[in-house]
Specification:
The protein is α+β, with helices and mostly antiparallel strands. 59% of the residues lie in helices and 14% in strands. It has five domains: 2-113 and 218-280 and 558-611, no CATH class; 121-212, Distorted Sandwich (Calcium-transporting ATPase, cytoplasmic transduction domain A), CATH 2.70.150; 294-316 and 440-537, Rossmann fold (3-Layer(aba) Sandwich), CATH 3.40.50.1000; 320-436, Calcium-transporting ATPase, cytoplasmic domain N; 623-758. Its EC number is 7.2.2.12.
Length: 760
């Protein structure tokens, strides 16, 4: 409120002295110089009184005001009866203050928009009616109505589908559709029809309330560079007054001293850095990165070493189907469908991951019967007319020896730390599912972007064992791995790194909170991370994407560069103007205009921060389009699994069965896979190329298509000729199938990484 009052007062002062200057100019043109001088003096005097009042308040608060130069300049001009110069100086000063207020408002708009969206009421169902209640009255379990255009008041679960604008939470500009039962965070805006939801938190503990607290803390902060600028500006005051006094003393002309004081402005220091910092914080808020204070932004511009936690930060934090193997007598989708049908009855996280994998692939799940669960071991029951057991190897297969087709995948699970789900049908082991916490899709790109920003070292700090940690680290290109870490040893590693430069720690869990606080910059994955981590961090990623961190580092470095440019250019021009004024080449009125021009240039240059990294505007993909493209891949995954399964069984299958499988596989490739790849190459890739820029950015991906077509043609030849009756032919076929499977999996991942990058 006080800031708003000051802004309004500065605008009124500017309008008043502007009117006085115009009135005096008209009177002077009419030949009434005496009255014109009085009008100019009145306008300058009002501004002078306002400045003196501010100076008095500052002194009362034991703060040294930088308005001393303005006081000396206006008072000196009036004392020398330079009323026109006094009015011009007053106008420049008042307009400079108004311009500063505008720049700060412009820079803070994005964060203020978050505060403006904070809901105050909720619509609660009570006894068959909808009642408007204060937000504090909402409790977990309440059934709430959210009307079109309203903000979701608390965290909850959707009773039906909804279209939501989540830009205030994630930075994603396009509305997204959420299905019934989906968790929704407070702060999202209803962009469709009214819907009901079940509250799962109080207003105080909701997602948006936490964001509001962080935003208010960010708005109240002041960066060290801004405080340092204030101190440098204080040194500038005696320099300016000393130069003015020396010019008067050596020339005997008080007008030269006045001119020096007029142009002696520390505004490039006291304006450029704060405006640039706040602009950068606003720019980051647009993309779902909340920087709590300017100090974190300044340090981010100088970061040299970044430590990452593994689980939930570099990885997704939940199990996903990474690989599978099965008895050649069954197809992969059959095994997964049977396992997922039974796992529907288990609440275990791994069981739910199996169900999710089946649904991603579009498999139909049956309702199991007669199910029983052995805690910690597995689940058994009937699915259709089949007896199915799912769980550990011992639970499913007992003491039976490992079949040849399962040896490789079980060995892989041993060295990469993945969970194994074994599947038996009618008493026989028929499949092994490898469930792993895979690396985030955007993690490789994020790390590459951070290196491109100038980060010298990226390390992983994790409590996981070395072989598991190194598997993830090598796949992501991480410089060093520190496994088997405790919270205390993480602190030691960070302390050692801080001795050599600015460090950053990125994590999401409660056990990461001490490390986040110990680093120069702590970054919390706040989209679904622990509240303790978000409270300990200086930067919170409100959207669950690591590449937004690289964006924030780019903005921080660009902001520092622009701020230093503004300070150097602005102070250089001010000092040059002081010298010119001291030698009599710059009269007071012209000096006031020049001083204002310098201030405007400095502020406009600082506001360039708001345009940083905007080159990609209009070259992004919407989330629903990306989801559709990923769904197409998910529908093709059973076909890829089928290629791998046939490769596994090539040596042992009877010739008629092998040829029959080849014919069916070839038909599926011709009907589903090849049209998909052809359509991508003809329609999707040209569009992606336009988004990415450059002459031919999709060349390597098109080359992969050609290899897929070649390998598919080889499969077609084997299926048509039916010539696999000798060992050499079977070996060649197996190699072809394994090559096709590998290139398809790699190709899908590469495409999804591109989609993910273009939706960032």
């Amino acid at each position: 409120m006080m800031k708003l009052q000051n802004t309004q007062r500065n605008v009124l002062l500017m309008a008043f002295v502007g009117a006085a200057l115009a009135a005096g100019g008209l009177l002077s043109a009419l030949g009434d110089g005496r009255t014109a001088g009085g009008a100019w003096a009145v306008g300058a005097g009002v501004v002078l009184l306002a400045v003196l009042a501010d100076a008095a308040v500052a002194l009362w608060r034991r703060q040294f005001g930088l308005d001393l130069i303005a006081v000396v300049a206006i008072a000196g001009a009036l004392a020398l009866q330079e009323s026109l110069a006094a009015a011009v100086i007053a106008l420049m000063f008042a307009s400079g203050r108004a311009l500063e207020d505008y720049a700060e408002k412009r820079a803070r708009d994005e964060m203020s928009a978050l505060l403006a969206r904070a809901p105050r009421y909720a619509n609660r169902h009570e006894d068959g009616a909808v009642v408007r209640v204060p937000l504090a009255a909402v409790a977990p379990g309440d059934r709430l109505l959210v009307r079109p255009g309203e903000t979701v008041p608390v965290d909850g679960a959707l009773s039906g589908s909804a279209i939501l604008d989540e830009s205030s939470l994630t930075g994603e500009s396009l509305p997204v559709t959420r299905a019934a039962g989906t968790a929704v965070g407070s702060g999202a805006v209803n962009a469709g029809d009214a819907f009901d939801m079940l509250a799962t938190s109080t207003a105080e503990n909701s997602t948006f309330s936490g964001i509001i607290r962080l935003v208010r803390a960010a708005q109240a902060s002041k960066a060290p560079a801004a405080r340092l600028a204030d101190r440098y500006a204080l040194l500038f005051v005696p320099l300016a007054l000393g130069t003015a006094g020396l010019a008067w003393l050596l020339t005997g002309d008080p007008n030269r001293a006045l001119a020096v004081v007029v142009v002696a402005t520390p505004c490039p220091l006291i304006l450029a850095v704060p405006v640039a910092i706040v602009s950068a914080m606003s720019r980051c808020a647009q993309r779902g990165v909340l920087v709590k204070h300017g100090a974190a932004l300044e340090k981010m511009a100088q970061v040299e070493t970044i430590f990452f936690d593994k689980t939930g930060t570099l990885t997704g934090g939940r199990a996903r189907l990474a690989a599978s193997a099965n008895d050649p007598a069954l197809r992969p989708e059959q095994v997964l469908g049977l396992a997922a049908s039974l796992e529907q009855l288990s609440g275990h996280a791994i069981a739910q991951a199996v169900v999710e994998a089946a649904r991603e692939r579009g498999l139909r799940l049956d309702t199991p019967a007669g199910a029983s669960e052995a805690p910690g071991a597995g689940l058994s029951g009937r699915v259709g007319d089949r007896e199915v057991r799912v769980g550990s190897y011992a639970f499913v297969a007992g003491n039976a020896s490992r079949p040849a087709w399962a040896a490789g995948i079980l060995e892989r699970a041993g060295y990469d730390g993945s969970a194994v789900v074994c599947v038996a049908v009618d008493g026989s082991l028929c499949g092994v599912l490898l469930m792993a916490d895979a690396a985030r899709l955007d993690a490789p790109r994020a790390l590459r972007l951070l290196k491109a920003c100038g980060v010298k070292r990226i390390a992983m700090l994790t409590g996981d064992r070395r072989d598991v940690a190194e598997t993830i680290a090598r796949s992501l290109g991480i410089d060093s791995v520190m496994p088997d870490q405790t919270p205390a040893s993480k602190l030691e590693a960070i302390a050692m790194a801080r001795a050599g430069g600015v460090t950053m720690m990125v994590g999401d869990g409660i056990n990461d909170a001490p490390a986040l606080a110990a680093a120069d910059i702590g970054v919390a994955m706040g989209a679904r991370g622990a509240a303790a981590a978000a409270e300990s961090a200086q930067v919170v990623l409100l959207v669950d994407r690591l590449d937004r961190l690289a964006f924030a580092v780019r903005i921080a470095r660009g902001t520092r560069r622009i701020a230093l440019q503004s300070v150097a250019a602005g102070m250089g021009l001010s000092i040059a103007a002081m010298i010119a004024a001291a030698f009599g080449y710059l009269p007071p009125v012209a000096g006031a205009v020049l001083q204002e021009s310098i201030d405007v240039a400095v502020i406009l240059n600082a506001l360039r921060v708001l345009r940083l990294d905007m080159a990609r505007a209009g070259r992004t993909m919407g989330p629903e389009e990306v989801a559709k493209l990923r769904e197409e891949h998910a529908r093709l995954l059973p076909l890829v699994d089928r290629v791998a399964s046939l490769a596994d069984g090539t040596d042992d299958m009877p010739m008629p069965a092998l040829i029959a499988e080849l014919v069916q596989l070839n038909a599926a490739l011709q009907e589903h896979l090849l049209p998909h790849e052809s359509q991508d190459d003809a329609a999707l890739y040209p569009r992606l190329a336009r988004m990415m820029g450059g002459e031919d950015p999709m060349a390597s991906m098109s080359g992969t298509h050609r290899e897929i077509f070649r390998l598919s043609r080889a499969v077609e030849r084997y299926a048509t000729l039916g010539a696999c009756d000798d060992g050499a032919s079977r070996i060649a076929l197996r190699r072809t199938l394994y090559a096709l499977e590998s290139i398809l999996r790699m190709h899908f991942v590469q495409e999804e990484e591109i989609y993910d990058g273009l939706s960032a």
